[in-house]
Structure formats: structure tokens, C-alpha cells
Amino acid sequence: AQSVAQPEDQVNVAEGNPLTVKCTYSVSGNPYLFWYVQYPNRGLQFLLKYITGDNLVKGSYGFEAEFNKSQTSFHLKKPSALVSDSALYFCAVRDWGGSYIPTFGRGTSLIVHP
Amino acid sequence: SQTIHQWPATLVQPVGSPLSLECTVEGTSNPNLYWYRQAAGRGLQLLFYSVGIGQISSEVPQNLSASRPQDRQFILSSKKLLLSDSGFYLCAWSSRDGGREQYFGPGTRLTVT
User: Fold this and answer.
1) What is the average pLDDT value for chain A, to the nearest integer?
2) Could A104 and B92 be called an inter-chain contact, meaning their C-beta atoms sit closer than 8 Å?
3) Is residue A71's pLDDT more than 60?
4) Is B23 exposed, middle or buried (0-12, 13-18, 19+ CB in 10 A)?
5) Which of A87, A44, A8 is nearest to B106 (CA)?
6) Using CB atoms and an 8 Å cut-off, which of residues 11-50 of chain A contact chain B?
7) Inter-chain CB proximity A44 and B90 less than 8 Å
8) Residues of A in contact with B42 (CB under 8 A)
9) Interval A103-112 mean pLDDT
């Protein structure tokens, strides 16, 4: 079985400050991990993924995420937030040895204040 | 490069009317295809997925159905819409390699009145 949790419904951050959006997961084997962003009335856009290798993954728009196996976490980060980063962010997980269907978190609304 | 199209972008339909939403993918072959619904709020609900022509798996029993008449075409249908069918419908594709990310279409906003 696989599951993912995004413990925060909403994250507020001031423009220029670093941001973190949290994600924890549970899988039976090894995880594939993904982050997506959704702007209002749009489809989800792929940001980055962890498959294997370096625990720090860099993605689009200056975002990065750190895979932590011991804490089963895959938090999304950005050193300096922009107002345009305000959106809904989804974490997703898939178990290597399980179904190819990913499980999505409920989403975290990121609000960046000017 | 790959592109995914969905239409229509918005739809307002009365209860009891039929539904047909279409999704097509360009620039790839043999994709896995998915239909999701996103209700007001945020969570994504997987409705159907397909690994090939004519191969449809349903995740949630409901009055919706899906078909894949061509390799890169995925259709979501209903014979009679319910109020509860309102939502934002998203089509997505991924490569056959299970480790790959999904790419989503722009979505269809369906309002059942």
C-alpha cells in the first residue's frame, strides 16, 4: 500500500523569504516521488521528481526537494519566494514494486504575500 | 514535444443530460492515460485509467464511463448526469515506464444544473 500526507492545508510566506511545503509518504518498497503545481482553473504541472540517486532534486522555476528516507519525507523548497509562486501544490508517491498509479496528497495552498 | 488537449474547456449541462469529454495526446505513442476529477476544494480523484486501446480500468463505481478508441484518445462519458458530477475534470498521460511523471491537460470545468 502507498500513501502520502501533506500536513498543511495552507502555507503563508512573505515574498523573498524561503518557503517549504511539507510532504511525507508511506510505501512498502522504494518510492517514486513527485511534486506538481496547479494554478487556478488550470491543469497540474510537473515540477520535479525523485527516482534514485542524489537526495536533493532540482526542478522547474527554482524549486527543489529533499528526499529523506529515514523521515520518509520529500519536502518542497525554494530559497526566495515570489508572489507568482502562489498556487496549489501536490505531492505524489508511487511504490516501485506496486501499482503504477500514483497516490496524490490533498494539496497545500501556498500564498506568497508581497 | 508532447501535448495534451482537452475539450471543451467549460460545460454547463442539465441533470439527466449526456456527457462526452475528449482528451487527445500528441507527440508520444502507447501512453498510459488517466481521467481525474477534482471537486471544489482540492483533492484529485482517479476515475479511470488505460494502458492501451480498449483497456479501461475503473477506480470508482459511478454513472461515468470511459473509452479509448485510439491509442492517443481518451473519452469520458455519461448517459445521464447527476448534480454530483459537477467538478473539474482532468486528463493526464504518462509513459509506459512506471517511474515517469504525469502530464495533465488544461481541464474541463463541468457544472451540472
Assistant:
1) 95
2) no
3) yes
4) buried
5) A44
6) 32, 34, 36, 41-46, 49
7) yes
8) 88, 106-107, 109
9) 96
The three grid cell numbers given for residue B64, joined into one nine-digit string: 461515468
* Long-range contacts formed by A38-42: CB under 8 A, 24+ apart: A38/A87, A38/A88, A38/A89, A38/A90, A38/A107, A39/A87, A39/A88, A40/A87, A41/B88, A41/B107, A41/B109, A42/B106, A42/B107
- CA A29 to chain CA centroid, Å, is 20
User: What pLDDT is stored for residue A52 in this prediction?
Assistant: 87
CA angle A102, B30, A90 (to 5 degrees): 25
pLDDT above 70 covers a percentage of chain B that reads 96
- SS3 state of residue A61: helix
Question: Which residues partner with A17 through β-bridges?
Answer: none
Q: CA B32 to CA B1: how far, in whole Å? A: 17
Nearest C-alpha in B relative to A43: B106
